[in-house]
Amino acid sequence: MTLEGKVALVAGATRGAGRGIAVELGAAGATVYVTGRTTRERQSEYRRSSETIEETAELVTAAGGKGIAVPTDHLVSAEVKALVDRIRAEQGRLDILVNDVWGGELLFEWDKPVWEHDLENGLRLLRLGIDTHLITAHHALPLLIEEPGGLLVEVTDGTAEYNADHYRLSPFYDLAKVAVNRMAWAHAKDLEKHGATAMSITPGWLRSEMMLEHFGVKEENWQDATKNVPHFVISETPRFVGRAVAALAADSNRARFNGQSLSSGGLAKVYGFTDLDGSQPDAWRYIVEVQEAGLSADATGYR
User: Fold this and answer.
1) pLDDT over 70 for what percent of the chain?
2) CATH code for position 183
3) CA torsion, ordered 201, 209, 47, 80, to nearest 10 deg
4) Domain ranges, residue 43
């Protein structure tokens, strides 16, 4: 699998899934522009100076690609336009757009109806989870469709099938994550007329930097967290969804997925890639068949 000569933009690549996707695109040989609001000189409201877009770019380059960090607030249209103008000037093309912009973990309140949830936080969550994706698509897709074969991947939480009949934490979070799946479906209708494809993708239970920190573990000893959170046994690294996106990008027949809602675990079965430990965690099937069924945590047959 090679993406040499391909140019990608991973919007929202400071940490988590975005970083994992950027690194795996780099490992396949792509030039990857990575964006976010946390740099070595400036932090977002997350106050996580340990993760920066410069570091992500360096990881992309170390993996075998070329990483280029561009500080960007994807709620600011002028900044996104300047980003795309720069890609056009430096590369003359854009082959892959990954919309992974988020930033709402500190804003949603679990299991609270709309009248109890902080309104300003909820509305900002929607702007971060939906408006950013639309603003980025508005500016970047004209470059992506200049040559046939472009790929847009919208990153969300939960497949369309799962989200259709599961309440996702709060009305604001629920709407943000459901909307991204529908957004990818809508973009697919427009992009297929230009020989491009769009789909949404969700990781499973992601062992992001923030999740590992929350459970008081590191990637090296993540299994220790299963003592208190047994179903964490199905979790996956950010590189797993990264390999899913890289496999899609390298697949000349990916148009068969146009408009669909996909998952890292599902695509692993299609393409045969594995997580860093050699496993293929199928989190969304596990969640329904084991966790929600009230069974004891056991990932046998699910990874």
Assistant:
1) 99
2) 3.40.50.720
3) -30
4) 7-208+239-286
Q: Do residues 100 and 13 make contact, with C-beta atoms less than 8 angstroms apart?
A: yes
To 10 degrees, what angle do helices 264-271 and 238-250 make? 50
Rounded-to-integer distance, Cα 105 and Cα 94, Å: 30
pLDDT of res. 41? 75
pLDDT band at 274 (very low <50, low <70, confident <90, very high): very high
Is residue 61 in a domain?
yes
**Tokens, residue 120:** 């300003």
Query: Does a structural domain hold residue 293?
Result: no
Domain count, the chain: 1
Whether 219 maps to a domain, the answer reads no
For tokens 């890292």, name the residue: 264
In a domain, 229, yes or no: no
Q: Is the pLDDT of residue 48 over 80?
A: no
Which residue has tokens 């062992």? 207
| 96 contact partners, CB below 8 Å, separation of at least 6 | 3, 6, 7, 8, 9, 25, 30, 144, 150, 151, 153, 245, 249
Q: Which amino acid is at 132?
A: T
Average pLDDT of span 255-266: 98
Give the whole-number percent of the chain exceeding pLDDT 90.
Answer: 91
Strands 96-99, 151-155: parallel, antiparallel or unpaired by DSSP?
Answer: parallel
- pLDDT the model gives residue 253: 96
Torsion sign, CA atoms 255, 68, 54, 104: negative
Q: Which residues pair with 202 in a beta bridge?
A: 263
Beta bridge partners of 215: none
Phi then psi for 142, rounded to 5 degrees? -60, -35
